[in-house]
C-alpha cells in the first residue's frame, strides 16, 4: 500500500504554485490586502491562492460534474471560496490531498481555462495537454 504523504496548507500552495507557474503562457499576479495570488493564462484566472482565516487554500476551476464528485470524495475539497460554487473548488491541506492530485487539479483547471480562449490565443491544445498517453 502506498503511503499517503499529507500536505499542510503551505506545502499545498507551494506544489500548486510551482505547477501553475510552469504551465505554458501562465503568469502570476499578486494582489495585496487581502493577500491573493492569481495565476492566469492570457489574462484569464485558472488558480487563486489566499489564506482563509488560518488556512492557506488553493482555489481552482473544475468541470461542474467533476467538482461535485471531488467534493464528495475528498473532505479537503469544498465549493470555491468567493467564486462560482459550481465551477470552482477550494482545496485545503489535510489528510486526503496528495501531491499527484494537486498537480492534476491544477492542470485540469488550466486546461478548462485554455479551452475557453479563442484558438489563436491558446498556448497549448487543451484537449491533449498534460494527458497521459
Please tag this protein with its features.
133 residues, alpha+beta, Aspartate Aminotransferase, domain 1, 27% strand, 6-stranded antiparallel β-sheet, 30% helix
Explain this structure.
It is a single chain. The protein has 133 residues and is α+β, with helices and mostly antiparallel strands. It has a single domain (9-121), classed as Alpha-Beta Complex (Aspartate Aminotransferase, domain 1). The chain is 30% helix and 27% strand. The protein contains three helices and six strands, in the order αββββαββα. It has helices spanning 9-21, 64-73, 99-115, and strands at 26-31, 36-41, 44-52, 55-61, 77-79, 88-92. The chain has a six-stranded antiparallel beta sheet with strand order 1-2-3-4-6-5, with helices on one face. α1 packs across α3 (99-115). The longest helix has 17 residues, at 99-115. It is globular. The mean pLDDT is 90. This is Cytoplasmic protein. It holds the Pfam family YjbR. It comes from Nonomuraea aridisoli.
> Over the alpha carbons, how many angstroms does the gyration radius reach?
14 Å
- N-to-C terminal Cα separation, in Å? 25 Å
Specify the overall morphology: globular
Low-confidence stretches: none
Order of strands across the widest beta sheet?
1-2-3-4-6-5
Annotation field: number of helices = 3
User: Strand-residue fraction?
Assistant: 25-35%
Q: How would a textbook summarize the main sheet?
A: 6 strands, antiparallel
Integer tally of domains: 1
Which class in CATH terms?
A: Alpha Beta
- Structural class estimated from helices and strands: alpha+beta
Helical residues, percent: 25-40%
CATH fold naming:
Aspartate Aminotransferase, domain 1
